[in-house]
Please model this.
Amino acid sequence: MNAPVLPQSLNDSVRPLDGITVVSLEHAIAAPFATRQLADLGARVIKVERPGVGDFARAYDDRVQGMASHFVWCNRSKESLALDLKHPDARSILRDLVSRADVLVQNLAPGAAARLGLSEEALRADCPSLIVCDISGYGPDGPYRDRKAYDLLIQSEAGFLSVTGTPDEQVKAGLSIADIAAGMYAYTGILSALLKRGRTGRGSHVEVSMLEALGEWMGFPLYYTFEGQEAPPRTGASHATIFPYGPFPSGDGRTVMLGLQNEREWATFCDKVLFRPDLVHDGRFASNVSRVRNRVSLTEIIVAVFAGSTAEAITGRLDMAGIANARVRTMTEVWDHPQLRARSRWTEVATPNGAVPALLPPGAPKGSQPRMDPVPALGAHSVAILAELGLDDAKIAALREAHAI
Model:
């Protein structure tokens, strides 16, 4: 069936997920990151939080005008509903809310959703079109099912630490890569389930584990060690299996990051950047495999050449030669990155403590403005949502008196 053709002005105002309601029992990073991206596309995301405390990521730090950096990043454009799910009336409210939703997302502790009557099996009969997304550390079965799973622990279990760092030290990623991986697969899985529902009318069950998500991202080192071969070495910021590819010091004490991908670039690099065309015919460096094997000798040559030039001069030669290179920027420098500024990628979002800058989400359909609504205060939308569900002022007041909201 062909999609209707909308007038251009209307088409430009429509977001892909306008009209979709998501209820999320979420905390930390994986689920909030997934649902924030759904909100970016126009979905209404109702974030259910514990009264008085909320998502524990709210208290990770106070770096953003007194708010937590992780929370501000992952929770814009959401509505916060404070519910104490130990209270029986709160549970019935949540069940009513879920029955009206298109998507339920949860990354509670193992078994918690089932104890609340929110497992896919418990919901399916009454909510045939509901999409249920469960995010966990290790999955709903298997010997690791009930183990606690934090980002660093999953980086360890998935082998990420074994290939990241220096020869002397394993190093974790500087951000929550396992949570982000799981959040991305939850986000894309929900989008796929919405497409499927559009064809079949029925909801789906999406299961994402942090271990499986990061395990998929470990595909290269897994295949590199196929059938017991040696694992890629830990090489700091250099590439483990491509060389030269990584940081090199310049004569003015700065760092030049560069990367070569093929033999044509290697020849150009020798001639135009190192001014050593003879190296092209040096058997030690005749292929990428040879250069990796002899990286110590080649590093000494490159460092000796670069020692006579400034970083600016070296990057100028790299640019002229068409060799990929980059500056190693600090976070402060990224805030003012010239490319992000030139492409107008910054906007602002409101928060309970004032407006803060925010990057526009990548990949938004052209002509469709992403939702960039406020980061919510805890329980900011409780009264409005409960009234929408049909509760009167007296009932809402009673729930507040009982600390159920």
